[in-house]
Amino acid sequence: MKTVEIAEQERLQVKQENIIQMPLGLLGFERIKKFVLLANPEEAPFMWLQMLDNANQGFVVVPPSSVLPNYAPDISSQDIEFLGIRAATDALVLNIVTVRGGEATVNLKGPIVVNRNTLVAKQCIPVNVANFSLQQPLAAIPVAA
Amino acid sequence: MLVLSRKVNENIVIDGRIIVKVVRTEGNFVKLGIEAPPDVPVHRQEIYDEIQKSNQAALTVGRPNAGQLRPAKPGPSTPVDPASSTPSPK
Question: What string of DSSP letters covers A38-106?
Answer without folding.
Answer: EE-GGGTT-EEEEETTEEEEEEEEE-GGGT-TT------HHHHHHHT--SGGGEEEEEEEEEETTEEEE
